[in-house]
Write the structure tokens for this entry.
Amino acid sequence: MKKLLGQDGLIHTVSLLLIIAAVGVISFLLISSTLPIGGFFGQLFKKPASFAATDNISVSIDANANVHAISPYIYGTAASSDPYQKTMGTSVSRWGGNQVTRYNWEINDANSGSDWGLCFQNYLGRGAFSNVWYTQGAAGVSIKDSVNANKAQNMESLFTVPNSGWVAKDGNNGTCSTNVPANDGPPIGIATNDEAAISGYDPTANRNTTSIRSQMKKGSAFIYPPNQNDGVVYQDELIGWLVSQIGRADKGGIKFYAFDNEFDLWSSTHRDIHPAQTGYDALWNKFSTFANAVKDVDPSAIITGPVNWGWIAYWDSPLKDRGAHGNVPLLKWFLRQAKQAETSSGRRILDVLDVHYYPQGGQYGNDVSTNMQALRLRSTRELWDPTYSTESWQTCCEGGPQIQIINKLKTWISEEYPGTKLGITEWNWGADNHINGALTIADVLGIFGREDVYLANYWTTPADQSPGYWAWRMYRNYDGNFSKFGDTSVGVISAAIDVDKISVYSSKDSITGDLKIMAINKQPINDENVTFNLANFTSNGMTKVYRYSQTDTTKINKLADISGVGSSFNYNLPAYSITLFVVAALGIGPTPPPSITPTPTPTPLCPKGPLGDIDCNGFINLFDYSILVTNFGKQVPNNTLGDLDNNGKVNLFDYSILVSNFGK
């Protein structure tokens, strides 16, 4: 969903990254940026005179410190199944935004409320969220085709399920609400009924004109095609049909189901049909109904919620009824309810605490003035740094000025409902068509990995071949062969580093053992000399180097290898650059495997599937990779559990087979 400063979203700025990349372990540091370096998609860039480094920075990386898995689901985008998402390395595509709140799956139409047109118009929703156009017709075709398109690009799917109570009745752009009030208000009558009228406005007429009733649970047998004459659209009937067509979440179907989109703005964005503010109890009643309905149909589904719009919405509801709930912050209370629900029923219905965040200092946009470039890179510290004071209106509000969003949310999770994962399913710091925005993207992705975020989705997606696209590829496809930053985060320790100048993130590849370091120089003019000290890691002496920078914004450049790397090495980081070091582990990586006996001819595990399709779903993707990683190094029955060469072991031969066919 598109955000506006002070209205629908937040804007957040991040410091540059230095990343240790491979399939394994992440950690980050930051460095600075202050001057504008400009050009659309990098074609017009002219680098200013670069100044030699005056600092001598030392960064220590400990392969045994702060070790935890990096979730592959932090590399998500939204509203696109375009082929370039595959080369960019997108892991999750989100079907979401304001229009999905009123998406009618029976006719594939929607309504974006105040986001579209001047009168809360309906419009043909086909392709509005996925950039894939369909003919009007079969119920549910938009979401089904979007999921299949995502699969073709090796992406998991996050589906936003409507829950406001009303969806579009047609796709006629002339179907409009009229006499809509400028403001929302508390519901008339019972406070828990957030679908009531408000003082001075009854939404019934506009509901009858534009909308049809939507309910989560049908309460009777599902049918397809659905009955379009019963006056109600049932969401669990859609989910049942999708499961029948594309499988359960654990069998290649939709993996994530989100509780609508920003429920706390229903009474603003969709006030023509939902003018009443949603309070604590109404939120929980609707969420629990939604989550149980989804789990009834697909017990393997991962449920996310409540999908708040931004920082101040984490603390209280639109109805401002916190005082009636023990003065407990909204998300902390929400987690408590979810824990109590599991204790009572024995079933977890909240898997991921899901929020949105945009920085609120003007970063979300295309402003690349000198001051904004510096702020954009600095403000990513809002995500994690307890010493950083937000440079926006949020200084006024509870939890500020050091908002440290990830730390705050993880603290609430730990206190109220341990085991719940954290998702930030809308974020954007702006200027992704500029090197400054690219550096910020790299920094945020590094932060998400280091801070153990589970799920994240950019809004919407960097354009193909843009600076933001290349920053993404530094983590997900830096060499054009789908080599990635590591899947295990490891500790970066550096004394007296200015995190507004450089950021460093490190990771380890759980299969090759390689150490991957991402280093971001956020300074637009100054180079930096950095000494990298490696602890609890033994290199074979060779390090590959990849760079994306302001000197060439059209591609990632492979630089000369570094030889003789032992426990440390020194390298110059140019101004406004992202540099990835792939430090090969001793005995693995570039060292060729023994070839005394011929490699057995690989046998497909699925008679009709390609080599590496371990779960037999017709695609070689993250599911197959996770199975192989889980069993790596083990003795297994021939031709099972990742034994692609049929020799009873899961080893580097099997890994190379899967990698060579990944994405097919």
Remarks:
- Residues 1-49, 125-135, 589-605 have pLDDT under 50 and may be disordered.
- The first strand starts at residue 18 and ends at 20.
- Residues 97 and 237 are 22 Å apart (CA to CA).
